[in-house]
Design a protein that fits this description.
Two copies of one chain form a homodimer.
Chain A: E1 2-8, E2 22-27, E3 30-34, H1 40-46, E4 54-58, H2 64-67, H3 70-79, E5 86-91, H4 94-101, E6 112-117, E7 121-126, E8 129-135, E9 143-151, H5 157-162, H6 170-174, E10 179-181, E11 184-186, E12 196-204, H7 211-217, E13 222-226, H8 235-241, H9 246-256, E14 260-264, H10 277-283, E15 287-289, E16 294-298
Helix pairs in contact in A: 7-9, 9-10
């Protein structure tokens, strides 16, 4: 199960009753946070999530509304008695930005390992999260993140027997270990069926709607995407500021064949997102408005 | 009239429904902000104050809960179309801290002038605010601020005549100008009576209760002071962390002969401040609990 919580939905600046856009995932006891604007630590508390399990923080870009809450969050994590290292992933320059912001959080009890993304596409595997960072099209260097939880095949007793795997090794192989015994190498695939469908969520903000987003988000169970404006009269502004319309996010969602789309990163000028929803759903039916604290438990296909 | 608004009352970290401690003053169209933790820009909006008139930001010290909201606030001020310079006052090191935090707000449309306090006591006069920065006793270098609005004497026609001030100069002198005419220098005091009582508010957080706070806060109309803990069982913790008890703040208020005391900078562990109020009022009767957005219009004695 993958728990996904959209902590906030505001773009540009936090508002009373609208936290800045960020998203927190939890899988197998390990949490991953994407972006951390001013107030995100409060949003985490309001959403009843916890600081200590945050192992990974992915940053899309260095505009203040996506990272200004970092020092406060790191101190909140420190206050949760975390001492384990924390991994940060973000665009080139991440190390310097983190160091600069941490001038007011100089004595953290845990080390931070910064991983700077250097290519258009990069892939990481941490704590079961398969993270694909993909470069999008914003005013500054900016990445989206597609995050997958893979799922191995079922244990296949016939395959194990056919491959002459000793009974004593079945359990370990099933749990992913590779074992060498009597000069034979036994690998998990020798006792497992074909990999089963895993879980995938894709997060993209801020960007114009470019093709690589469709590719990265392909077949996601959940696609969280910026919808800066609903009103089509603001399209010129969206193009100029390198943001996205509701309709453009929906078009991406349709092309990427995702299960559902949550809109977020609303402009402060967007008071009533609801009024644009019907038209957006005409483009992609499974469009939903993101709300602060909205969450979903993504389940493996036969998991209940 | 001096408008004083306590924007938040939390210490250490912002909480759902409790903004970090900071305070905004407005006098004669010019606003002065003391401290700026994470979320202060939202607190300013909630308190229905405005960004554009913020001419001065005083910082008590560089712990994150007192300055982490700075980049977001500066961007909000930028967004209000301000182009006029903004003055920041704070402990030694201010320039570096501001520069570091502004790595995520690199292109502000207004210049920032940083004034670093170098002595135990320093005095500034900006836009009618007479600011006394006084060093207090915290874990890091920290200052309190006593802020006065002075008030000149009434126009005194007899004095003007006695001093042989030409009638044509009376108005200018009354409004503070010094004029040289016919080799004679005319100063405002030649047409004005004794200065009248002005307005004074003093702000102190974070500190142990030391004598210099009493001296600085002397006869204030309003004393806003940290009360980290109400429960006397936490006194050891207060001493160790260099914070102040409700009772200690009240004792300072009494000694300083202030008109009223507002407590603030509550520990996140302090859920019900009310339960400690009665005992605190036994020490200083005019003690009030600070609340987010609590404000007062301090009036000159005969002003209505």
């Amino acid at each position: 199960m993958l728990d996904v919580c959209l902590l906030g939905t505001s773009g540009m600046m936090p508002l009373p009753n609208r936290w800045l856009t960020s998203c927190m995932l939890k899988y197998n006891g390990s949490s991953l946070l994407i972006d951390c604007g001013e107030g995100t630590q409060i949003a985490i508390k309001e959403a009843d999530r916890h600081f200590k399990s945050i192992d990974i923080i992915c940053i899309t870009h260095f505009h203040a509304d996506h990272i200004s809450g970092l020092p406060g969050l790191l101190l909140a994590i420190a206050n949760s008695n975390r001492v384990e290292p924390l991994i940060m992933i973000g665009p080139k320059g991440l190390t310097k930005v983190v160091q600069s912001l941490c001038i007011i959080a100089p004595e953290l009890p845990f080390p931070i390992q910064c991983i700077e993304i250097n290519k258009k596409d990069e892939y990481f595997e941490i704590n079961g999260y398969h993270i694909h960072a993909f470069k999008v099209d914003h005013k500054v260097l900016c990445y989206g993140y597609a995050i997958e939880i893979k799922r191995q095949g079922r244990f296949d007793i016939d395959k194990a027997k056919t491959n002459n795997v000793p009974l004593s090794l079945w359990n370990k192989l099933q749990h992913g270990e590779t074992i060498v015994e009597n000069n034979m190498t036994y690998t998990p695939d020798m006792v497992l069926g074909n990999p089963r469908k895993g879980l995938k969520m894709t997060y993209c903000t801020d960007s114009r709607p470019v093709r690589c987003i469709v590719d990265a988000a392909k077949d996601s169970d959940l696609f969280i995407c910026e919808g800066m404006y609903g009103d089509e009269d603001k399209k010129e502004k969206a193009i100029q500021k390198k943001h996205m319309m509701f309709s453009e996010a929906a078009t991406l969602a349709k092309k990427a064949n995702v299960k559902e789309l949550w809109l977020t990163h609303y402009s402060p000028s967007l008071i009533n997102a609801q009024q644009y929803l019907l038209n957006t759903q005409k483009i992609f039916n499974q469009t939903y408005l993101g709300e602060d604290g909205k969450y979903i438990d993504l389940m493996f296909e036969d998991e209940e």
